[in-house]
Amino acid sequence: MRTICADKYNIHIGHDSLAELDTFLSKSYYSSFIILVDENTKKKCLPIVRKSFSTAHSLYIIQIKSGEKNKNIRNCEKIWRELSGQNADRESLIINLGGGVITDIGGFAASTYKRGIDFINIPTTLLAQADTSVGGKTGIDFMNFKNQIGTFAFPKAVFIHPLFLETLDKKELLSGFAEVIKHGLIADKNYWEQIQASVGRDLKSRPAESWNKLISESVEIKIKIVVADPYENGLRKALNFGHTIGHAIESASLKSKKKMLHGEAIALGMICEAYLSRKCCGLSSQELDSITEFIVSIFKPPPLKSQAKQLIGLMQQDKKNKDSEINFTLLSAIGKAEINNSCSEELIEESIHFLNAICNQ
Ligand SMILES: NC(=O)c1ccc[n+]([C@@H]2O[C@H](COP(=O)([O-])OP(=O)(O)OC[C@H]3O[C@@H](n4cnc5c(N)ncnc54)[C@H](O)[C@@H]3O)[C@@H](O)[C@H]2O)c1
Ligand SMILES: [Zn+2]
Fold first, then answer.
1. Residue 33 φ/ψ, nearest 5 degrees
2. Within this chain, do residues 202 and 259 fall inside the same structural domain, yes or no?
3. How much distance in Å is there from the Cα of 70 to the middle of ligand 1?
4. What does the pLDDT look like over 48-84, one tens digit per residue?
5. 229: Cβ below 6 Å to ligand 1?
């Protein structure tokens, strides 16, 4: 097991992480343990957690429905109501067992209940393990805006067990993998090479344990960035690589019949933004080719449904942009992110045509 210090809390990664959780709970003085699950993590993950306990800790279960559309104020209220109904006091601990939806809403509910009670996260998707586990962002969607209401609040600890990935859908695994790729591209060329070398072509057949190393590296990269800029004033924008165009592709797909997962859209966004990096940030053509080929080989993207003009319109509405300029994080080389770039509309359109040509091959 590896334990990585994320500034304010520890992240335990590996097979023994659940034994560590058992010790954490046994040694703690919390008045009660409340575990938040959705129907999938209740069925697939909760038995694994229970089995790892040497003594049976008493857990009160709160269950919400899975999926982004349930990361809302109604479910948050449900959590607050159940906590109140159970007379949960300020010494109670919330255990969030699930993907990013559960850790986001559970962290938010905990950070606001009685002005904030402790919580820990047991992330069970690749995205939640390699990305969401770091950074202290909690929240819910509101009035059709993602993460409109939220807090910065840190868990007391995070326990990452790769075994959970075995029951995850391939599509979900791929979605999380896009953020792993992003971490290599923005921060560490060696890690990028390691990702390429170690992954092979079929993610699903990869043994769960071999994810340990990749997840640890991803977590370490994100910690370095977040610790340098905890409240997102500058450097943290490096994490936006692929996300300006990726978010627009994601939003467009959500309005269509064929909805894309976040990471699938970000993978396509990274191809476009690697193209922009080549045109205005000094990325070499060999590196552009290597990024494009790898992403295509893993994600096998279908032809893009949305038009360039529609995507640019969506980018202009993005709340991350100031003064109608579309802001990009680009790469001057693999492993080197440059924040605060702007590109002309013509060039952005060109990058979408570049992606389209690749997807239609
Ligand atoms: N706080 C942050 O810093 C941060 C960063 C990135 C993303 N996010 C948020 O994360 C959310 C997406 O998270 P996600 O991709 O983990 O999605 P998710 O939580 O919706 O999980 C995806 C699906 O997998 C199921 N599932 C989870 N673990 C499983 C397992 N081990 N086996 C089988 N099924 C399992 C879930 O029930 C769900 O149906 C978004 O709401 C996004 O805004 C937050
Ligand atoms: Zn993302």
1. -115, 125
2. yes
3. 11
4. 999 999 988 999 999 999 999 999 999 999 999 999 9
5. no
pLDDT mean across residues, the chain: 93
Q: Which domain holds residue 279?
A: 170-359
pLDDT at res. 146 = 84
From atom 18 of ligand 1, which residue's Cα is the shortest distance away? 99
Ligand 2 center–CA 79 separation, angstroms: 26
Work out how many domains the chain is built from and give that number.
2
Q: Is the CB of 102 under 6 A from ligand 1?
A: yes
In a shared domain, residues 153 and 175: no
Residue 319 has pLDDT above 80, yes or no: no
Q: Measured from the CA of 107, which atom of ligand 1 is nearest?
A: 1
Q: Are residues 69 and 196 in the same domain?
A: no
Q: Model confidence over 199-214: pLDDT tens digits?
A: 765 777 777 777 899 9
Per-residue b/e over 324-340, b at no fewer than 16 CB within 10 Å? eebbbbbbbebbbbbbe
Query: Does 220 share its domain with 281?
Result: yes
Distance 42 CA to ligand 2 centre (A): 25
Helical residues (DSSP H) of the chain, grouped into ranges: 17-27, 39-44, 46-51, 73-85, 100-112, 126-127, 170-187, 189-199, 211-228, 243-254, 262-280, 285-299, 308-317, 345-359
Quote the pTM value.
0.95
Tell how far the Cα of 258 is from the centroid of ligand 2, in angstroms: 19
Same domain, residue pair 194 and 339: yes
Q: What is the CATH number of the domain that holds 294?
A: 1.20.1090.10
User: To test ligand 1's pocket by mutation, which of 63, 70, 125, 250 has the most ligand atoms within 8 angstroms of CB?
Assistant: 125
